[in-house]
Design goal:
82% helix, 148 residues, mainly alpha
């Protein structure tokens, strides 16, 4: 796949992932917290979950592809002397942290879903949005050549 096409796919997946999470946090989460009815957010999350997970899979896959295009040897990703490697490493670290929060959300919050876990659910969703937003900002630095 060409670098340009991979970049477009990555941006579209990021838009779907971040936009979908932001929609849940900005529209459904306040309503759920106001009414204390967890079914509102649960239903919205279950309806959008497949699209969010597919977008995340494409996002991670295309991100790895872009990293290999920029630095074809994985060992170079861990070379702090290279500005590009610092950006790749920052994105890998953010993606890892995001995936850890998502795993906690899936295994500890959703698996034991109840009204007393509303705060944890909201906190996880907000944290996922913030991590995705920071990753998006770091991603713009590939284009403009700023250093981390």
């Amino acid at each position: 796949m060409s670098h340009h096409l991979l970049h477009v796919v990555h941006l579209l997946a990021a838009t779907l992932w971040l936009g979908g999470l932001a929609l849940l946090v900005l529209s459904w989460l306040p309503e759920m917290l106001r009414t204390r009815d967890p079914r509102l957010l649960w239903d919205a999350l279950m309806r959008s979950r497949w699209a969010l997970m597919a977008a995340l899979a494409v996002l991670v896959g295309s991100g790895l592809g872009l990293a290999w295009n920029w630095l074809p040897e994985t060992r170079l990703w861990f070379t702090p002397d290279l500005p590009l490697a610092r950006l790749v490493l920052a994105k890998v670290a953010l993606a890892t942290l995001l995936l850890l929060v998502l795993a906690y959300f899936e295994m500890r919050v959703l698996a034991r879903f109840s009204a007393d876990r509303l705060g944890r659910m909201g906190l996880c969703l907000v944290l996922l949005v913030l991590l995705a937003a920071v990753a998006s900002v770091v991603g713009t630095e590939f284009r403009y050549g700023l250093e981390v």
